[in-house]
Specification:
This is OmpA family protein. The structure is a single chain. The chain is of the alpha+beta class and 183 residues long. It has a domain at 65-182: 60s Ribosomal Protein L30, Chain: A (2-Layer Sandwich), CATH 3.30.1330. The protein is built from 4 helices and 4 strands. Strands 1-4-2-3 form a 4-stranded mixed beta sheet. It is rod-shaped. The model has no long low-confidence stretch (mean pLDDT 84).
Length: 183
């Protein structure tokens, strides 16, 4: 018997299908790949422990510390230092030696008797008198500024002799850098 080429091909195809396990008339799906795998329960790792508290860090910083020297007074119409003020000025000179970076601002003042111009010259002479004493006792003139303020910025009433005496003064202002520990 002679079979046609087309029939032979069909038979070969049928044999191949039969060998693969699929039936011609049965509707059974062919295995398409590996069997599905059951999902695995996902486990979250535990959260990390909280960070350890940070201890405050202490550090040393430089801080400006203002200093004002008061109580240096003068007689009326005078720029001559009073002997009672010498000890205070010696302490200022010692301070300046301990803190060579400090600049001293020497400010002279007067009571409100007389003209502004006269009191301006007198207040500047008072400040210069203090600066000269300090220079004589080791304070560099380049570390001092001298200013007269006439009768501006009174600290007491000019209506009484005690108030006028309080206003006839020199104040020394400065600031130094000090080490401070901060958290």
């Amino acid at each position: 018997m002679k079979y046609s080429t087309q029939f032979t091909k069909l038979m070969l195809l049928g044999g191949a299908v039969a060998l693969s396990g699929c039936g011609l008339y049965e509707v059974t799906p062919c295995p398409a790949g590996p069997a599905p795998v059951a999902p695995v329960a996902s486990v979250m790792p535990p959260p990390p422990p909280p960070p350890a508290p940070i201890a405050p860090v202490e550090r040393t910083v430089l801080e400006s510390k203002p200093i004002t020297i008061t109580g240096i007074n003068f007689q009326t119409n005078s720029a001559k230092l009073m002997s009672r003020d010498i000890r205070t000025l010696d302490e200022v000179a010692d301070f300046s030696k301990k803190h060579p970076e400090a600049v001293l601002h020497v400010n002279g003042y007067c009571s409100k008797t007389g003209s502004y111009a006269y009191n301006y010259k007198l207040s500047k002479a008072r400040a210069a008198s203090v600066a000269a004493y300090l220079a004589k006792h080791g304070v560099s003139p380049s570390k001092m500024s001298v200013t007269g303020h006439s009768y501006e910025d009174p600290i007491a009433s000019n209506a009484t002799p005690a108030g006028r005496f309080a206003n006839q003064r020199v104040e020394i202002n400065s600031s130094i850098m000090v080490k401070t520990t901060v958290k």
